[in-house]
Specification:
Jelly Rolls; disordered N terminus; 6-stranded antiparallel beta sheet; TIM Barrel
Length: 847
């Protein structure tokens, strides 16, 4: 009996679904100068090879012709074309995403118009009489010409974009937001084009939802299929269990297949910080009189998502356990092509997971992500806050055609991700309510019927197990109120508030916060500046510094403000006189500020239940908002946040005359048993007080321990009483697992400030070795405090960096080999040391 392997658009076997990726050409012509493919002959001399999926910008980059700001991709028509020989058994042609207004031609016949880059299209080749040899051509029309058309004006305007008519166009705002997005507008077939061959059974639509029912799981399956043969049986496999489904013959070779699968005592899906991300594979087996067809339906997970909103709160619970959601606002792996190559995407998401991030937000200014992104978040246990692609503008939802388009857009997306357990929140938009309110509009104009009624109804229909939130931010008397609902918090940051504002603001949840110009490492800086140039007032440098459109300051000014506060230096003078020290302090400044703020929000007793950093990765090389640089390498800030976001960690907070509070957070599913140690040092070298106690922390909880509980007598630990000079200048807390010598988490507090002058000799030593498994290890020891130890070894990525080493301590750091990079000798530099230590790289096992 024959067995066919097939699948839906996301998962068909290669023989059924063929990606059309090669042999494409692309050219740019004046707007409306070529209205049919046959009129392009005069422009063919300027064609370039193009990869599909991709954009005109990525084609230019591959040809060595791309330069930031050189081309306005919205000013010209862009044509893609490919010569094909479509086989007789071809059934359909799928276009997963065309940016932005596009026409599709087979030879000179128009077969498709698309006016929404977020909508996928599927063409019946038989209905359009398409087969054999011919040319497939795609015309992407100049957006500027479309924006010049007269349309009703908005009720209020945003400064996020320069062209207010963008509100009518369903396209990404990437590349069209002056100040913080490079001018690289996405134009082209940025999602796959696929040729589907005929198969006995084809899924036309699917509706798969899963939920928890107590300790049991329920998976509801509803499929509309087209089959060339009469069905005799339908079975769905969920994990290892099989369930017989019902089906109805709808006529014209169409069937409705449906059923409810009950799984007793399922393994629950958890964010990785709180448990295992258990997944169940889904598979459909359709039987006929003379064969069986097996269809991969992807996977699902069983979990329950709730949000406690009592008294203005926003506290997300997974499986009835409150979860502090921390992470970042996600940015595309490659803004130029909008592609997420498999290994690059996995590497980025592994970095996020390893940093303790359990939530990423897909922002309304960008694009809906690829299936691979959501599938990896499912696998790695990373929750997703998903904005719909609307931001800051007065969208014309009273226009019937516009509303029909965006309804289809959201329906397609929700159906695409409805089985993914990672989706926790679907949010209507980014800053629409805030924008209207800040412009003084009356409350009835803040939210329209699409965000208030249509979108929540669609979510309930297609993804009933996720939480809907109308706008980010919203929930207070004003949408941007910090102590109610969901906030965007830049008090510590753009508004130059002191660090204790993070506590004073009484946040409940911030889906966007702590935007800083984060300094990358030297290798990226050296690659983007000319000889003799340093980070400063050079166009090549300043173009990589984000700024709010229309302001007289940028986010480098924000970083320098906090540098002056933390280290008591003049950043402008330091930049010119001591370049290396300026760069070192710039890197650690934002790390200290962001790490300590995150710790404040995670402490026991905090009102805050989640914080997502603005944002994940730079959109272009430079000192952008990203905590990952444009080449995919973590910046210093990443490591400060990694320590602050860890599932098991310890923090110190200054409680004034109450001394120092020591907070232990245990997000994991097991009780933590170990010891807590407190050390005080004078002159950053001599230990003057010490205490160590046994501690136990229940699963999914945090506790607060007073410093006095560890010390045998009164010590002014926070230097709050100020009786004479401070008796110590370094406080260290360390958390140990039972029977382990190296601390699993540490934190430091400096009662007299962070400003330790560089010294000629700290007694810092470093060398590399390899363990029995061939892994590189860095061995460190120091006599005096080694502040913000930076490890820079080409080709090797440390699992921790920019950390403090307590006086008289030692530590081992794992070093991971970076794929495609040559391993070379490097150096270790403490921020309070005048010189660095050269480190040779081990090539064989040693102790």
């Amino acid at each position: 009996m024959p067995v066919w392997l097939a699948g839906d658009i996301a998962s068909m076997a290669e023989k059924i679904l063929i990606p059309l990726t090669t042999d494409w050409q692309v050219t740019q012509v004046a707007s409306d100068s070529a209205l049919l493919p046959s009129t392009l002959s005069s422009a063919l001399l300027s064609t370039l090879p193009a990869q599909v999926p991709g954009t005109i910008a990525s084609a230019l980059r591959a040809a060595g012709q791309f330069e930031y700001g050189k081309d306005n991709f919205d000013a010209l028509d862009v044509w893609y074309f490919c010569d094909l020989d479509i086989p007789a058994d071809a059934a359909r042609l799928h276009f997963e995403g065309l940016a932005t207004h596009a026409e599709v031609y087979w030879n000179d016949s128009l077969i498709l118009r698309s006016e929404n880059m977020f909508i996928a299209h599927s063409l019946d080749l038989l209905a359009h009489a398409i087969s054999g040899k011919g040319r497939l051509s795609l015309r992407f029309m100049a957006l500027n010409a479309l924006l010049a058309q007269r349309r009703p004006r908005p009720r209020w305007k945003t400064r996020l974009v320069e062209q207010q008519q963008l509100r009518w166009v369903r396209t990404s705002l990437l590349g069209r937001m002056p100040g913080w997005s490079p001018p690289v507008a996405p134009v082209g077939p940025y999602r796959p084009i696929l040729l589907e061959l005929q198969s006995p059974l084809r899924i036309r639509s699917k509706n798969i939802t899963s939920k928890l029912d107590g300790e049991d799981g329920q998976c509801e399956v509803e499929l509309l299929v087209q089959s060339t043969q009469a069905l005799t049986a339908c079975v769905v496999k969920v994990g290892a269990q099989e369930f017989v489904l019902d089906w109805q013959d709808l006529g014209e070779q169409q069937y409705r297949i449906h059923g409810l699968c009950q799984l007793p005592d399922v393994r629950k899906w958890w964010p990785h910080t709180h448990g295992d991300a258990a997944l169940y594979a889904l598979e459909l087996k359709a039987s006929y009189a003379d064969g069986v067809q097996i269809i991969n339906l992807g996977h699902t997970g069983f979990r329950q998502i709730k949000v406690d909103q009592r008294d203005g709160d926003f506290n997300l619970h997974v499986n009835d356990v409150p979860v502090f959601c921390r992470g970042a606002c996600w940015t595309p792996v490659d803004m130029i092509s909008l592609q997420n190559e498999g290994k690059d995407l996995r590497q980025m998401l592994l970095l996020a997971r390893d940093a303790g991030m359990n939530m990423l937000r897909v922002i309304g200014t960008m694009v809906y992500e690829t299936d691979a992104f959501y599938h990896l978040c499912d696998e790695l246990g990373i929750l997703v806050w998903q904005d719909c692609m609307f931001a800051n503008m007065d969208y014309p939802v009273t226009d019937a055609a516009f509303t029909a388009s965006i309804t289809t857009e959201v329906q397609q997306f929700l159906q695409r991700i409805q089985a993914s357990p990672c989706i926790a929140v679907v949010c209507g938009n980014s800053e629409v309510e805030q924008q209207a309110a800040m412009l003084g509009q009356p409350v009835e104009l803040w939210r329209n019927t699409f965000f208030a009624e249509t979108l929540p109804a669609l979510c309930k229909q297609y993804s009933p197990d996720v939480q809907y939130w109308p706008s980010s931010p919203s929930g207070g008397v004003m949408p941007f109120q910090l102590d109610s609902g969901v906030a965007h918090y830049f008090g510590v940051g753009a508004y130059l508030r002191p660090l204790d504002d993070a506590r004073r603001s009484a946040l409940r949840f911030t889906s966007e916060c702590l935007g800083f110009s984060n300094m990358p490492d030297d290798d990226l800086i050296d690659g983007m500046l000319k000889n003799g140039e340093t980070p400063g007032p050079y166009p090549a440098w300043k173009q990589g510094i984000p700024r709010d459109n229309g302001t007289g300051w940028d986010f480098e000014d924000v970083r320098d403000h906090y540098m002056a506060e933390l280290y008591k230096v003049n950043p402008a003078s330091l930049r010119y006189a001591e370049r290396e020290r300026y760069l070192a302090l710039a890197r650690t400044t934002t790390g200290v500020v962001m790490g300590s703020t995150m710790a404040e929000w995670r402490r026991a007793g905090s009102t805050c239940h989640g914080a997502l950093i603005w944002f994940w990765r730079d959109l272009r090389p430079g000192a952008g908002w990203g905590i990952i640089d444009a080449h995919g390498k973590p910046k210093a800030t990443y490591y400060y946040l990694k320590r602050a976001m860890a599932a098991l960690t310890v923090f110190i907070t200054d409680e004034g005359l109450n001394g120092l509070a020591l907070h232990i957070v245990n997000d994991g599913p097991q009780v933590f048993e170990g010891e807590l140690e407190l050390n005080l040092y004078r002159h950053a070298e001599t230990r003057v007080a010490h205490g160590r106690i046994a501690v136990q922390v229940a699963a999914h909880t945090a506790i607060k321990v007073s410093d006095y509980a560890l010390l045998p007598h009164f010590v002014d630990t926070s230097y709050a009483y100020r009786f004479g000079s401070a008796g110590h200048d370094v406080v260290q807390v360390a958390l140990y697992r039972t029977d382990e010598e190296q601390a699993c988490a540490t934190d430091f507090y400096f009662p007299s400030g962070q400003q330790f002058p560089p010294q000629a000799e700290l007694g810092l030593h470093a060398h590399c070795s390899m363990d029995a498994d061939g892994n590189h290890l860095l061995h460190l020891s120091t006599q005096k405090l080694a502040q913000a130890v930076a490890v820079q070894i080409p080709g090797l990525l440390p699992d921790d960096n920019y950390f403090h080493l307590a006086p008289g301590s030692s530590r081992k750091i794992r070093l991971m080999v970076m794929e495609g990079k040559s391993i070379k000798p490097g150096h270790v530099q403490a921020q309070n040391a005048l010189g660095s230590i050269r480190v040779a790289v081990a090539t064989s096992m040693a102790t």
